[in-house]
Amino acid sequence: MRIFAAIVAALFLLAPPAVAAPPAVPGDLTVTEVSFRGGGNLVLHGSVISPARAGSGRSGVVLVHGAGAGTPREKLLGEAVAFARQGLSVLIYDKRSEGYSLFERSYAQLADDALGAVETLKKQPEVDPGKVGIWGLSEGGWVAPLAASRSGDISFVILVGANALQPLRQQTWAVAAGLRKAGVSGSLVGHAEPKLYRAIADGGMFPEPYHDPEAVLARLRQPVLGIWGVNDLLTPPRETPPIMARALEDGGNRQYTFRFFADAEHAAHQTPDGGVTRLPELAPGYAEMVGSWVGEVTSGRAPVAQVSGPAPVQADDSVGVPPTEWWESSGVQAAALMLFLVAFGGYPVVALVRRIRRRADVVPLGAARLVSAGGLVAVAGGFSYLVYVLMTSGKLAAPGPLVVGRPVVWLALQAAAVVTVVATVLTAVRWRRSAGRGEKARLGLLIAGGAAFVPWAAYWGLLLP
């Protein structure tokens, strides 16, 4: 049942992807437009950026985007120019939007796209087909190893801001880290945020939630260069490298080099504020290291198990995000929302009908009104606020004003939840004295909704500190 997931989907607004024009490059470089077929025979368009000086037999690298549908090639133009000035031929391409969205994607299909780009780059006259590698940023850090594990034609792998954790675990960590960096503590971070992600994944609306990057890394036989900014707020920069190294070595591959760059963020760009802002400039020495490392590995001198650079900054460890139990599944959550809508929303609707019909035989209960109003506010407001927090948490969540580490909006929703619970008890006490069978049934439904609301609100952290 995907009703719960459909409700989530309705709250998201997807903008159509921009169509990228061929990029303009500096005068010391050349650009060649190319097209190739990716996964599902989809035609993709890209550019090969190379040094203008004559020469052949040079190394090449395909750049694989991070997350985002239809991301234009210009998004990686800064990296392409910097690497081309190190003597490489660099292929960048417009990312697919067909079969890819916020709720749908296939890393295997994205890997097919990357393999199509590799084949195209190998055919460029200035490129040595035996010296072509692949570079992946963020989500591309899951895609690039998958492509390389399926092809002996890829000579090396470069990963930037890559993650050795499952995507669902990485995403819940990133949002929680953003909330904590914004000063948030308590049940919003510890309970509500990860549970909403679990429900979304259970509803089939979180793509590739349990992809296993360790198994893929263990199949890599190519030399691997891993690069992280010490202020990465999207990938746990302290946890990922040891896991990645262990996976590579479990597969018998010790040809890896890991490098951390100071004052750099997720994409290894410079950052002035601890990773919140990404400047256009790459971290000093990043492009030069890529150029020299590629030169070494394509000459048969791949470094062995090298790790260098300043220690990364990571305040909190990630936490495993297991699949939901039946009682917390998206289907059960959708059923609970329907119950609350009928129980809490039905009470004022019936009261309005009775007023229109001029039925004055029933004295309204103030407590019952509070159950109805408080329940609707807590349920609809809590769900909407959680989705808002998730959607505004690309690098740093925007939870709004805080009081003692709690967002004011969240505190107001918790207050509404407490009012709902107390009012439910008072309504139940007065239920026996309610006049008429119809009124008893109406209050009984309201009380049933309030009783179900208690464990639901506790589960989502609305009744927890």
Characterize the structure shown.
- The protein has about 475 residues and is an alpha/beta fold.
- The chain has 2 domains: about 15-185 and about 205-310, Alpha/Beta hydrolase fold, catalytic domain (Rossmann fold), CATH 3.40.50; about 325-460.
- The chain has 13 helices and 11 strands.
- The strands form 2 sheets. The chain has a 9-stranded mixed β-sheet, sandwiched between helices.
- Helix 9 (about 285-295) links the parallel strand 8 (about 255-260) and strand 9 (about 305-310).
- Helix 3 (about 105-120) crosses helix 4 and helix 11 (about 365-390) runs antiparallel to helix 12 (about 410-430).
- The longest helix is centred in the last third of the chain and has 27 residues, at about 330-355.
- The two termini are about 30 Å apart.
Alpha-beta classification:
alpha/beta
Name of the CATH architecture of the largest domain: 3-Layer(aba) Sandwich
**CATH-derived topology of the largest domain:** Rossmann fold
Summed over residues and divided by their number, the pLDDT gives a mean of 90
Radius of gyration: 27 Å
DSSP summary, beta strand count: 11
Q: How many structural units, i.e. domains? A: 2
Q: What is the succession of H and E elements?
A: HEEEHEHEHEHHHEHEHEHHEEHH
CATH superfamily of the largest domain: Alpha/Beta hydrolase fold, catalytic domain
Short recap of the structure:
The chain is an alpha/beta fold. It has helices at 3-10, 77-84, 107-122, 140-149, 167-181, 187-202, 213-217, 240-250, 286-297, 330-356, 366-391, 408-430, 437-459; strands at residues 29-37, 43-51, 58-64, 89-93, 127-137, 157-160, 224-229, 256-261, 306-308, 402-403, 406-407. It is built from 13 helices and eleven strands.
